[in-house]
Design brief:
The protein is an alpha/beta fold and 427 residues long. It has helices spanning 15-21, 41-44, 49-61, 67-77, 105-119, 135-144, 163-170, 185-196, 199-205, 215-218, 223-234, 251-261, 278-285, 309-315, 320-326, 334-346, 353-365, 384-389, 398-404, 417-425, and strands at 3-5, 12-13, 30-32, 84-88, 91-95, 126-131, 150-157, 176-181, 207-209, 241-246, 268-273, 327-331, 371-376, 411-413. It has a domain at 81-102 and 218-389: Rossmann fold (3-Layer(aba) Sandwich). The strands form three sheets. A six-stranded mixed sheet has the order 4-5-13-10-11-12, sandwiched between helices. It has a five-stranded parallel sheet with strand order 9-6-7-8-14, sandwiched between helices. Strands 2-1-3 form a three-stranded antiparallel sheet. It binds pyridoxal-5'-phosphate (PLP). Residues 103, 105, 135, 246-252, 300-301, 354, 377-378 line the site of pyridoxal-5'-phosphate.
Length: 427
């Protein structure tokens, strides 16, 4: 399948090229040129998670890879369960946090790591350089940890990520280096950008970005929507399935809309944000105004200028009317988020703050005869301070408890490109 730029249909790439380039020329994003419509969803939905996922991905990009290696990569990338839990009659949560870093970003990051293994030139090691405000760095670091031929350098703002986030990338060691920058997340991003602008440095270290706009992180996110529909079909729920997606950069929603285009039987998507409501406000008013982000309890969605929104516009050919017809939307503030966490607890379910936002918007937008599914994008234990402030105990999963015992291996560097260059040379 060919991939095209959202900015210029004349810019095309193979999947390999799109992954390695990251962005299309002029800042465009890569999208599949066409989305195939699958006539066999009925039988696809009867397959098991990994088998179905392999077949679907094969139809998109399989022709670029050796068949056995491709299958093996997908099987090991997607080797954790995606359970659908019932919250009450007609309301379910799709739990996307059973991977190694307890957030849905594991799906994209693990697929990216495994597919990069097939894409990179043998014998030429890569350095994955990534700036993180928390979750992405953890998912990328864990996905590449102890994989031969690649090392990961994570830049993060010193003392500005949570302890539990930090231990997920800074205790690993081996081929994962964590650099605590004396500065903000924006400073980290600027340092990374400066490195990518240096052609000589890129070539020497095989610098590669694991940015969330990489198409290799987007594609596998289509798969779990199919898994949710498959699990509902098993329970004889076939009609009126509505997904609510807690959104920040809107990659997750974009992937869902792509799955819908391939004919996956579902009724609608609800775009849910926190107070960073650039998209809901746009859908209300027709006026697209990116804003500086504000801090909320659902901090992985604190995005004022969502970088995947351009992809969703592209899917709808920039047609505001059909976009409004396809979507439902809403946004919730921190007080609503806490209220929703308590409401869900009353039904016996402990949701993370992001899931709680999507639940709150879903409750307003779900029709009486419909079945709602909100996405559980992270484990609540990743946001302990939120629950502590609410007087709620959260059990710590083993994956986090084990890392807490390990020493932090991060190195501090000043907010300075020369210091980063030197750190890159050191290993
Ligand atoms: C990244 C993230 C989101 C937002 O996903 P997008 O694809 O950027 O819209 C939501 N919840 C959690 C826990 C996340 O880490």
């Amino acid at each position: 399948m060919k991939f095209v730029s959202t900015r210029n249909p004349g810019d095309t790439a193979t999947f390999r090229e799109a992954v390695l380039k990251g962005m299309a020329p002029g800042g465009g994003l890569w999208m599949p040129e066409t989305l195939p419509v699958f006539e066999d969803w009925d039988s696809l939905l009867q397959l098991r998670w990994v088998e179905r996922s392999e077949i679907i991905l094969r139809r998109f990009i399989g022709d670029e890879f050796d068949q056995d290696a491709f299958a093996a990569a997908i099987h090991s990338a997607l080797d954790f369960p995606i359970p659908l839990a019932q919250v009450r009659r007609g309301l379910h949560v799709l739990e996307l946090f059973h991977g190694p870093t307890l957030a849905f970003k594991d799906v994209g990051a693990r697929f990216f790591a495994h597919i990069l293994d097939l894409i990179r030139e043998p014998g030429r090691p890569l350095t994955i350089l990534t700036a993180t405000s928390g979750d992405t760095g953890a998912a990328v670091a864990q996905a590449f940890w102890q994989r031969p031929g690649a090392r990961v350098v994570v830049l993060y703002p010193k003392a500005r990520v949570s302890d539990l986030q930090e231990i997920q990338f800074a205790t690993l060691g081996d081929n994962v280096a964590a650099l605590a920058v004396e500065g903000s997340f924006d400073d980290c991003q600027a340092l990374v950008k400066a490195c990518f602008n240096d052609a000589e440095l890129c070539a020497r270290h095989g610098l590669t970005s694991a940015n969330s706009i990489n198409v290799a992180r987007l594609l596998p996110q289509m798969l779990y929507y199919a898994e949710a529909v498959a699990q509902l079909h098993k329970q004889d729920v076939r009609d009126g399935i509505v997904f609510a997606v807690p959104s920040g950069n809107f990659g997750n929603l974009c992937a869902g809309l792509m799955a819908q285009r391939t004919g996956l039987p579902l009724r609608a998507f609800v775009a849910a944000t926190n107070a960073n409501a650039t998209v809901p406000r746009y859908l209300d008013s027709g006026d697209y105004r990116p804003q500086p982000s504000v801090a909320t309890l659902s901090n992985a969605m604190d995005v004022g200028a969502p970088n995947n929104w351009e992809r969703i516009q592209h899917l709808f050919g920039g047609d505001f009317h059909s976009l409004r017809q396809a979507l439902r939307w809403g946004f919730k503030n921190d007080a609503d988020t806490k209220r929703s966490i308590r409401e869900l607890m009353g039904m016996g379910y402990l949701a993370d703050p992001h899931a709680a936002v999507s639940y709150a918007v879903l409750e307003e937008r779900l029709g009486l005869s419909e079945t709602g599914v909100f996405l559980g994008t992270a484990h609540p234990a990743k946001f302990l301070p939120v629950y502590e402030a609410m007087g709620i105990q959260v059990p710590i999963p083993d994956a986090l408890a084990g890392l807490r015992e390990r020493p932090l291996l991060s190195k501090e560097i000043p907010n300075d490109v020369a210091a980063l260059r030197q750190a890159l040379e050191e290993r």
